[in-house]
Amino acid sequence: MQIVGPYLLFIGDATDALSIKMARGVADFRPELCIGEMQVEGCTVTTGLPQLTIAEGVAKGAKTFVLGFANSGGVLDPKWHPYILEALAAGMDVVSGLHEKMSDVPELAQAAAANKVKLLDIRHPDGEFKTGTAVPRKGKRLLTIGTDCSVGKMYTSLSLEKAMKDQNMDVDFRATGQCGILIAGQGVAIDCVISDFISGATESLSPDNNEQHWDIIEGQGSLSHPAFAGVSMGLLHGSQPDALVICHALNRHHMRGLPHTAFPSLQETIALNLQAAKLTNPNVKVAGIAVNTSSVSVEEGRAICQQISDELSLPCVDPVRDGCDAIVERLTQEF
Amino acid sequence: MQIVGPYLLFIGDATDALSIKMARGVADFRPELCIGEMQVEGCTVTTGLPQLTIAEGVAKGAKTFVLGFANSGGVLDPKWHPYILEALAAGMDVVSGLHEKMSDVPELAQAAAANKVKLLDIRHPDGEFKTGTAVPRKGKRLLTIGTDCSVGKMYTSLSLEKAMKDQNMDVDFRATGQCGILIAGQGVAIDCVISDFISGATESLSPDNNEQHWDIIEGQGSLSHPAFAGVSMGLLHGSQPDALVICHALNRHHMRGLPHTAFPSLQETIALNLQAAKLTNPNVKVAGIAVNTSSVSVEEGRAICQQISDELSLPCVDPVRDGCDAIVERLTQEF
């Protein structure tokens, strides 16, 4: 699966900034991929991109129409069908990260076939995966792992990729969630893979490469999250990471969505992940810590990062506020 | 999903005893569920059950026609369609544990609908699962876990259930693989669940129950197997086990299918699984060790079990040769 840019981002009638996370992610990280945004009446949020109709987007070169909004059930509301049909008729592929598949709607499937364009339901991996083999692969791999879900693993991965590219390093971001896939144009929504194939699908995501090449693999979930640790474990084993970057958000007191659960310390998170990662790469090491400090002031955030860095003898940054150069410096020196 | 007994076991033209593991499993563990066996020309193996045609099976009360064979690709060969159609026309449900779904073959789906019977593709879970919550559930749970895949977790689980029933304990076997599902008449093929829902599906498999009730949950894979540890981890967290029984097979030197991998010790397996299990049940303990000693003599096997028992201060049995009474005794005393 390859998503062809540039994109026209459709955000419908969204009124919640969080619900257009997918559109904002790609607008922030790949502005060169985004021709414009399209809203309908009632929409109160924006990515800040220019407003375009489908016809205008196509005229400006858009190749893919992106449903850039989400909702709690992942439902594809039939009210969006006319917009999808219009985009298909105009010759664009259409991307959706919703749970309900466009390709399961006969009218949409027929229109895509008739116009020789694609419906890309990126939450539903279309590959035939194999079970993992744990055979070592060439090249270097970094996996972002989390103390919890939603602590900034994708943002950290992309920030690392950017810092490494700035230093002319040979690097690829490997996406494992729908936002990341839209940004990378390819990838595997790993939590949507049949569980037998978690590590095998991850192996296929970062294949053999040049000795000096880095794959920056987007982590998912957390080994300490009772709902998602299975995904995190398979992703860790399949990635065979040389380097782990631990992602954390300040002021969490329980695992996301589960108020009755305990939150692990950074030390516990490091120990647990190194232990598990050694099964497929005995030389794995931690390269640094990335902390989302947005809940405190810049000064307080910097002081906390410095304290963590001193305690763990590792570079510690807020990728949003400070970038990932300090971690990349460690990578170039010690990996 | 509920598989209705009794069964007529169809083993086709199988020539390899391992390929009819599903038929043999149910014939061994639930003989009262099995009316008979049906072969076609070329078949050289048997479960030992009486040979019956579909008409004879129905006349004797068979409610479900079971495809009791497997093949490496999980392919549903079209040569079996006529037999499935005959069974459907005779009013039987049909069960398959193959990867290719019967319900994806229009002719079979139509025949099932026309005869108001079911096609049960038990390798494909049909439930709508939720993500795990880790909310503690009432009742007691035992999970069989393995040093490796295919070390006897299902056999041990069923042997434990039998020993507990013999003592009039309130117990249910909870199946997580297709052989187990056929034996139990229900369950979830956990390695076929979308990875986001591994622990959630496991939670639904062993719901709240009476304080003295035991669920014996069939384990899958191994935390030390790089292909399947994600499944094992989600199953462990979702099970919230009070008791673990460690299953092991003698004379393994690497993880199944992966000659380049190391094999864990029993001590390592215990430590790794207790650590992970404590996330959802801090009171988890090991109740005993089950060893497949079939590769050595009975005397040698008993000596090895005794040695393991002495070293670990836990009951250690070969469930096939000795049954699981020693482990059940520990359960009744200490859990």
From TrEMBL, chains A, B:
| Protein name according to UniProt | DUF1611 domain-containing protein
Which organism was this protein described from? Thalassotalea euphylliae
Q: Which residues form the D-glutamate N-acetyltransferase-like C-terminal domain?
A: 131-328
PANTHER family attached here? DUF1611 DOMAIN-CONTAINING PROTEIN, GLL3100 PROTEIN
InterPro entries cross-referenced by the UniProt entry: DgcN-like, DgcN-like_C, DgcN-like_N, P-loop_NTPase
**Which part of the chain is the D-glutamate N-acetyltransferase-like N-terminal domain?**
41-125
